[in-house]
Amino acid sequence: VSVLQRIGCPGDHLFLFNHILRCPAGISEWACPFIQIKVLDNPSGVFHFMQSLALLMSPVKNRVDFVCHMKPTERKSSSSSGKESGNWTLVDEGGEEDEDPETSWILLLEDDLIALLSQFPFHELFQQFLGFKSGG
């Protein structure tokens, strides 16, 4: 990752980002520093920013195929007194579950998406669009 970040082209950075998006949930703990997008002093910075943002906001193709072999095992927590703490079930007004419990583990967590989105330098993008210099 370090070599691709240092000397790689924007295509290499997108390659890394695609692989990170196909990792199991919990990437906010370790993968966020691997996403580095520079807009200022980069001729293709805005294009790279927009491509990466489009990747993050669109469904990840073939993610199920990548993580299907990593299904977590069912485990009981001894401190939760019989119920799993931290798991929420969303139901609609008819009492039907919104998500399929068999496939919900495949999705990225909300924390993962927020952490990845925080790696995008929106302030640099606006500086580039508005023509501001970094010194003010």
TrEMBL record:
One of its GO terms (cellular component) is cytoplasm. GO terms for biological process: autophagosome maturation. Signal peptide: none annotated. Residues 72-99 are annotated as: Disordered. Coiled coil: none annotated. This is Ectopic P granules protein 5. The lineage of its organism: Eukaryota, Metazoa, Chordata, Craniata, Vertebrata.
